[in-house]
Structure formats: C-alpha cells, structure tokens
Amino acid sequence: MGMRHRLGLFLVNKLASGLPRSIGFEVLDARGGAIKATSSLREHTSASLVALADTSCGYGTYATLPQSKSGFATVELKTNVVKDLPFLGLVHCTASKLSSNEYCQVWVADVFDKDDVKVASFQCTQRFLEYRGSASLRMYRWLVNRALGLFGLRM
Questions:
Q1: What number does CATH give the domain 3-149?
Q2: Which of the four pLDDT bands, split at 50, 70 and 90, describes residue 151?
Q3: Domains of the chain: which residue ranges?
C-alpha cells in the first residue's frame, strides 16, 4: 500500500462523523470499487450490522460517484443475518460494486465476525442524484476534488 493511499485512508477515517463515528467505523482498504471496513463496537445487533454494511457501500458509492452527479441515496436494501444476535466481538465487512449504470449502482457486502465466519449478507441500490443548477455545489465539489487531488484521491 503506497504512502498516498495510506494517507487518504487516514484522512477518511479521521474526518468521519455522525453514524460512522458512533459505530466505530474505520476503512481498512479502498480500491477499484471495493471497500474493506471494520466496526469497533463490541456488542452487535442486526441494526449495527446493517449500519456497517450500508456505510461501507455508501463510502464505496461516493468514491466511484460519476463527476456529473451531485450525490446518491440508498433506495433499496436487503439484509440476511445468519448468526444468532446479539453477539460479542469485532466484525469486519467487505463491500463491492456489483453493477453500475448512468442512474445507479448496486453494491453487495458481507459482514464477518472475528473468526471470519459470515454473520450477514447485504445488498443495496444507490440512486444517483442530479445537479439542479447549483453552481455553489459544483464549485464546492471542484474545490474538494482539487484538494484531494494533492493526495491522489478523488471525491
């Protein structure tokens, strides 16, 4: 893993707020439409597993968002939990883009316990949002991309 990649992951994890911070979300790796992440919660319910998987897919969608789009929204999600809940221990998640077109992306994620046993399977559809003539939003996105470009990253 190169220095720029490690620095980018460090910044993503340090700037986390809201739900990602409350579940102890941390991106371990992000490459080519795939995200590996973990949650530092010690006790898990189905809600915490969905939060980890959906956040992982959301970060992946944001990282691969087309330049012409202003954002995205989760319009559909499905989760199958295959382990008795609640349970204790750390969990990690791998999320990958299953398909993409000009309107949406479909992501799948699997959540594993500390022994690498699958705990849950997750799938979601992320619908892209269009710019609505907001020059300030386009300017903001351009400035952020310009700053992230110094680290070899893109918003």
A1: 3.10.129.10
A2: low
A3: 3-149
- Residues 14-72: pLDDT tens digits? 556 667 767 778 888 887 788 898 888 878 888 889 999 999 998 888 888 888 888 88
Nearest 5°: CA angle at 93, between 7 and 119?
160
pTM over 0.85: no
For residue 137, the surrounding DSSP H or E stretch is helix 135-149
Cα–Cα distance for residue pair 15/128, rounded to 1 Å: 23
CB distance 138 to 146 below 8 Å: no
Angle at 132 between CA 148 and CA 77, to 5 degrees: 75
Distance CA 97, CA 14 (A): 24
Tokens 């999600």 map to which residue? 77
Question: Which 3 state secondary structure label does DSSP give 67?
Answer: coil
